[in-house]
Amino acid sequence: NDWQDLPKQAMRWNMFGGTFGGPIKKDKLFFFVDYQGQRFHFPPAASLITVMTAAERGGDFSQILAQQGVQLYNPFSYNATTGQRAACQNDIIPPGTIDPVASKLFSSGLYPLPINNNIVFNAPDRIYSYLNNDQGDARIDYKIGDKDSIFGHYSEGFQTNPNFNSVLLLGQGFNTSPFYSAVIDWTHSFSSTIVSDARMGFNRIGLDYGTDVPGVGNFSETIGIADGNVGGPGLLGLNFSGGLATSLGQADRQDQFSNNTFEPMEDLIITKGRHNLRFGFQAMRHQLNVYFAGNN
């Protein structure tokens, strides 16, 4: 923040957790649980975006012509014979050709006003983010007898990493990553030299992320974009090239990934004098489920 002469905000990172375990039945049944949490809060970061100046909102782009040398042309003046369009005199758009959607956007109160006389980097935006993570594990061990023992293990976690803009029309990002894991294991001794270990495992890893524009309702249709909120509330993405205006809107968008893995396995261990022989198998089945908003 030094180059903008803004104070540095505090950063808060906390990690905490605990474990607990012990016997349930002496020499037979045992349990163990643990938990870990993280709270990483990143301070708001101030930045400047580019918005249309008051003159530009009324169709007067003469400042761009004077400073950037960008000449605007009237798209409604195309001459099919010459293949040319008429230049807007002094980069001033004729009042009757200003799109009413743009006029409603500028007058909505949600499009920021400039804080200086610059044509770029003239409006503030504050970006804020945090990373929260919670994870827990539980395990049970049971000794059935001299020849058999089993254990079960379960883990679950949830991570969220959103980001926020003070300018609502830039959109707010969400990112969640839940995961689940479970395994059950059975060990059996056929004899002092032959041991079997059978196991079944399952993992599920998810990712759900995207951008929405909350708190503005069906803003696209409100300013006159027909069917602009078919996919959800907010503002459709309005992308501007050339760097003379920051792109706006995202419309509610969500992408989802879910990866399931099933893993059975068996090990047979045979001891012959000074030699250990291992036999077994392992299989893995993957399920990858993908959803892209707009493609599925």
Strand tally, please? 10
Helicity level:
under 10%
The profile of the biggest β sheet is: 10 strands, antiparallel
Order of helices and strands: EEHHHEEEEEHEEE
Residue windows where pLDDT falls under 50 for at least 5 positions:
none
- Give the C-alpha Rg: 31 Å
Give the terminus-to-terminus CA distance.
42 Å
Mean of residue pLDDT values: 90
Topology:
Layout: E1 12-25, E2 29-49, H1 54-57, H2 62-68, H3 100-106, E3 123-143, E4 148-160, E5 163-165, E6 172-189, E7 194-212, H4 219-222, E8 253-272, E9 275-282, E10 285-292
Antiparallel strand pairs: 1-2, 2-3, 3-4, 3-5, 4-6, 6-7, 7-8, 8-9, 8-10
Account of the protein in words:
The chain has 296 residues and is mainly beta. It is 7% helix and 49% strand. The chain is built from 4 helices and 10 strands. Strands 1, 2, 3, 4, 5, 6, 7, 8, 9 and 10 form a 10-stranded antiparallel sheet that branches. It is elongated and about 95 Å long. The model has no long low-confidence stretch (mean pLDDT 90).
Brief description of this entry?
The chain is mostly beta strands and 296 residues long.
Properties at a glance:
296 residues, mainly beta, 10-stranded antiparallel sheet, 4 helices, elongated
